[in-house]
Amino acid sequence: MRVEEIIAPVEQELAEFEKFFAATMKSDVPLLDKVTHYLVKRKGKQIRPLFVFLSCKMFSETNAKAFDAAALIELLHTATLVHDDVVDDANERRGYFSVNALWKNKIAVLVGDYMLSRILLLSIEKQNTDLLAIVARSVREMSEGELLQIEKARKLNITEEVYFEVIRKKTASLIATCCEAGYLASGSTDHRDVMRLFGEKVGLAFQLKDDIFDFGSAADIGKPTGNDIREQKMTLPIIYTLNQANKADAKELRTIIKNHNDSEPHIRKAIELVKRYDGIAYTEQRMRALGEEAKVLLAEFPENEAKTALIGLVEYTMNRTK
């Protein structure tokens, strides 16, 4: 399914949301307004609002609450990206200068804090305390996931089970929140757990696709490979390889990640080891299984264009090239 077909059922909503979101970021402080304007103009593919609007439209027409839900989630996502760039000392984000690169860390942190405060204020102003509750849970889980990953990465001994817990909290929880919030905006409550689980499985599949990218051709995905190794991130292809490799190869891979993660020849060797032990094929298999499980969860709901688009979005998540 092409991107245009996935977007079609909520194309008008996505166009309106761009202005709506810009308005939620508006401030009377000129510097703050300048930074938030810079962020809004460089937003990505609107994947999160797309999940929100489609999850709502599968059960009802989109409404003001769906727009509120999408805004809260985009505020959270943007705030975490700004703060992550400070933590990671990153100077670029999607090919553009990061906020901290242009305005320094102090301003970046304060801008992120401002966006988090907007989540609280907008929720109270619109009396969307149900949305605030699930967004707040997502903040907690994302923070826990990040800290759990940092804790386990130091020893390079993370298990597959723990890794899935990390990405469930760190990445999948936000997509889960999109689907649950969109569903709640429809005025229904009976299937909120199903919609949350659907989003969680798609979010897990999304992260596994990112794991696979790190071992692909840079020409295919438009970015250098081996970045996770450089950053000493324990992803599923690496974890699986460490579990499957013989003692000598497992030791060599650990040594590269720990001591030679800035050496291009060593990084190429690590990638070769992961490919040799089918770490990428295994990750692809797990990703596909999660995608199928997500689609099955929607089977009980009536057929309509929003449902078809959501299923197409699952496929897009697994087949995307960047």
Number of folding domains? 1
Q: Could you name the CATH class?
A: Mainly Alpha
Number of helices, where a helix is a run of at least 4 consecutive DSSP H or I residues: 16
The CATH architecture name reads Orthogonal Bundle
Uncertain segments: 217-223
The number of strands is 2
Shape by Cα distribution: globular
Structural class: mainly alpha
How much of the polypeptide forms β-strand, as a percent range? under 5%
Radius of gyration: 20 Å
Helix-strand sequence: HHHHHEEHHHHHHHHHHH
Main sheet attributes: strand count, strand direction, barrel closure:
2 strands, antiparallel
- In CATH, the homologous superfamily goes by the name Farnesyl Diphosphate Synthase
What fraction, in percent, of the residue positions are helical?
A: over 70%
Strand order of the largest sheet: 1-2
Quote the distance from N terminus to C terminus: 16 Å
Question: CATH topology, what is it called?
Answer: Farnesyl Diphosphate Synthase
Return the average pLDDT rounded to an integer.
90
Description:
The protein is an all-alpha fold and 322 residues long. It has a single domain (3-319), classed as Farnesyl Diphosphate Synthase (Orthogonal Bundle), CATH 1.10.600. The chain has helices at 3-7, 11-24, 30-41, 47-57, 64-88, 99-125, 129-153, 160-185, 192-213, 218-221, 227-230, 236-244, 247-259, 264-276, 279-297, 305-319; strands at residues 92-93, 96-97. The protein has a two-stranded antiparallel sheet. Helix 7 runs antiparallel to helix 8 (160-185) and helix 12 (236-244) packs across helix 15 (279-297). The relative contact order is 0.11.
